[in-house]
Amino acid sequence: MLRRVFPMLMMSCATSPTHTPPADASAAFGKLAREYWDWQLRESPEYATQLGDHRYDDRLADLSEAARARRRETLRSIRARLATIDREALRGEDRVSWEVLRLEVDQALGKDEHAFYLWEIDQMYGPQVAFGELALNFHPKKTDADRKNLATRYRAFSTYIDQYIGNLRAGLDKGYSATRMATERVIAQLQRLVESKCQLFVIVEAGVGPKASQQVCSAYSRLLHFLHSEYLARARQEVGIWAVPRGADTYRFLIGLHTGTTYSAEQIHEIGLAELASIEAEMDTIASKLGHKGPLREFSDKLRGDKTQYFPEAGQLLDGFRAICKRADAALPRAFGRLPRTAYEIKAIEAFRARDAVAAFYYPAPDDGSRAGIFYVNTDRLEARPRYNMAALAFHEAVPGHHLQVALAQEADKLPDFRRHGGFTAFVEGWALYAERLSDELGLYPDDRSRFGMLGYQAWRASRLVVDTGLHHLRWTREQAIEFLYAHTVLSRTEVENEIDRYIIWPGQALAYMIGKIEIGSLRRHAEDKLGARFDLRAFHDTLLSSGAIPMPALRAKIDAWIASGGTPH
After folding, report:
1. pTM exceeds 0.70 for this model
2. Domain coordinates of the chain in residue numbers?
3. In three state form, how does the secondary structure of 544-563 look?
4. What is the pLDDT of residues 322-336, one digit of tens each?
5. CA distances from 115 to 167, 168, 239, 245, 484 (A)
């Protein structure tokens, strides 16, 4: 793998010109941080519920223009107040938190400026999926107050959908539209919901019967009618963000947002090609070891077509993941001195959203302790869920990947809440991708096919740099992107199509994985070079993960300080 150092990274360094006593600055910042977090939860009540904060369980987010204007003013006010707090007077994590808050506010204002709400149709987390997820998985149903709040949310959903439709209609008037692909996928999801009379939303134990369910169904029917009769004909055929107004500027913004760098799309494309070539050389070595002679793609196709690599039943797939995670749990003390107290569980993605979902994902545990973290596994179409990819997937989503990193951040009670629950994509996804490789160091892959699957997953993330920039900068078609990803990974055709459709609706997000992993790997090599025999892998990992998911410049500064201290355990 090529050793790379990031170019100049995006991070504010503005400070107040006046001197403030450290205690005063710390108190002022702490007050602002608490107010900022409370405001975030009020504005995102569904997210508050998911986190286990139930103060706003009787409401849904306000999608109106008036609410957006109010949020813009609040963000500008927070930025102005932050500028009055002398960053140089802050110490340790408070100084990092100052930087993180300034960056979060700037990014939130940038998102508003680029007006994503005018054309966001999302087959993965749009309202046709998110509301069911909220009602079924996150909203509590134990008390009369819980049930009353849920019923109130059912009634509020009508207004929510009308605001959502209004935003999309305004987008059409301004020349913005979602892709036809995403629109067709969401239409299909809505048709399934409406045809079932939204039985999904009949939650007997919460006292929410067919009448309340029909309120939700009526709103979904209006959305279905709007998308089918008014929107679909005007949805764009072009899949890249370049096709929307100011699309090139928006993609540059998203590259910075998700990677934390000033890389251009061209630079990222070239990094992807170079990383991919290096990884494929490793894959060739394993293929040869397994007796294959010939092009790598032939071996990948043979592996995909091996029926012994697929479970016939969903329960067997889930049990297979549980066995893999159990081995990983046992190995963690060899690489980490500090482990999370929070448990995690493995569940199948619900049928109502599995068809359009990716292979797996992770949901953190809430602060109220009402449930564990969840490693969700897609059991739809088992012929698309090969065994050779399972280990890498588990290590990425659960341990030592997302669950370990996120749970440790949540348990860092000395950090402000917006940091405990926040996260910069390059750190979060870069860590999870690094964890796949770390698991190989720990000897956790059971055989060469699983190691080949791990390398295939690494190639997949390198390929993302190529296809994401291809789609959104070089104007590739969906078909070009599908063929490239299929040729250079061991993903099934179903997984490839779902992945490409994800990159289409989330421009730039897929870039964070490999870019973040490259930086984390660079930091580890830097520490090994500087510390030599004093380098302790457990201490390195504990230091890396001790501050939550921070911007990469802050992480580099943290590791440099740790090296300067002699690499002592954190």
Report:
1. yes
2. 22-113, 127-242, 254-515
3. HHCCCCCCHHHHHHHHHHHH
4. 999 999 999 999 999
5. 10, 11, 18, 10, 30
